Task: structure prediction
Amino acid sequence: MKPNFIDCNRKTAYLLPPSLEDWLPSGHLARFVIDIVEELDLRSLKESYGGRGSSAYNPVMLTALLFYGYATGVFSSRKLERSTYDSVAFRYIAANSHPDHDTIASFRRRFLPELEKLFVQILEIAGRMGVLKLGSVSLDGTKIKANASKHKALSYAHALKLEEQLKAEVSELLKQAEAADQTDIPDGMSIPEELSRREERLKAIAEAKAEIECRAHLRHAAEQEAYEKKMTELAHKEQETDRKPKGSAPKPPAPGPTGKDQVNLTDSESRIMPAPSGFEQAYNAQAAVDASSMLIVAEHVSQNPNDKQELKPVLDSIVVLPETLGAVDTLLADSGYFSEANVKGCEEKEITPYIAPGREGHNQPLFERFSEPPPIADDADCVTRMKHRLKTIAGRAVYARRKCTAEPVFGIIKSVMGFRSFLLRGCQAVRGEWKLVCIAWNLKRLHVLHG
Result:
C-alpha cells in the first residue's frame, strides 16, 4: 500500500494574507507578556523620546521583547535580534519587525532605572488578579557570576611589584630612545609603542591601587569603630565588676591595604565570593519570595560575600510595597542571616522572624521532633523568644516551608531560565539586570497561576 503523507510543499502561496494572531496558541507566554506590558504605565519611557529624527521602535514592544527574552533564557541583544527572525514567538512580539542589537542594548542600558517602577506595577497586577496577598515571605541569596574573570583580579602586593617593574622598563626604553642613533634597536621593536603600552598599564595599575586603598580606608574606619565600641564595653564591664576581663585585650586594626587586597581590572565593583564550585568573581543576588504564590516581592544585589547585612535592605523594600498587596507578617531565612540586630529589625517592622540560629543535624530522634520545648520567661529577649518559637512544633512547620519557596525560584532562574552570569558590569547596571530577571520570573509564574 502506498504511504499517505501530509503535503510538505514550502512554496505554496497563501490564499489569504497571513495574520500574526494565527501564529501562536491563545494561552502562549508571549501573548501573556504582551497583555501585562500593555497594562503597565510606560509614559516615562515614551516621553523620554524627543520625536526628532527617524521613527523609533515603540518602547512597549521593546519592553515586552526584553521581558520575554529573559523569561525564556535569551539575554544577549544579538540573540534577541536573531530571535526576531528565527522564533515565531519573538516575531509575534516584535510585530514582524527586527530591531537591531544596538537598539536593544541601548534601550536596556538607558531604561534600567525605570524597571523598579515596573517591578512594583507587576506585583500590583498580581494583586488585582487575586494571586498575591502578602503574608509570609522567604528570604534567600545566591551568587551570580560577574561579567569578569577572577584571573583578572590584581592584588595590592602584585600591583606594587608590577608597577616597579614597568617603571624600570620605561626608564630603560627612554635611555634606548636617547641613544637610538648610536645603538642598534632589536628588530620589530618600536620604542614609542612599547612606551605607550607601559604607560597605559601603569595608569590601570594606579587606578587599581587607588581603588584598593579606598576600600582599605573604609574597612579601617568600620573596624576602628567596632574596636572602640568593644573597648568601651570592656571598660564599662571592668568598672561594674571592679575586675579586669579575662583574656588578651583586642588589638587595634591596622590602617592601609594588605598585600592580599585585590581589585578586578574588568569589573572593579565585583568581588571574589565563595560558591559551590569554588571561589568566583561574582555578586550576591537576594530575593524575598512570597510563600503562597512564589512571586518575588523584594530583591537587591550586594557586594557582600555573606548574607548577614542583606536582611535590612529587604525589610526596607517590603514595608514600602503598596498597601493593597497586604502586609508581611512572617519572614523565613536560614542561619546565614542570623544576628541579634536582624531579629530586632524584624520585630521593629512588626514582622515575626523565623531565622535559624545555626545548622541542625539531620535525622533527629522521633520523640524530639514531636515534643514541645519548656516555656520561657515573660521578659525574655527577642533572640530567646525566636529560638523558642523555632523549637515548637508549629514553628518547625512554618520554618520548613523555607526550602520550598526561595530555593526552587533560584533553581529555576539558574537551570531553566539559564541565568548564571550577568551581562552588564558595575553595581548599578547589575542591580538593574537582576531586577529584569526577577520581573521575568514573576511573569512566568503569573502565567502559570493565571492559567
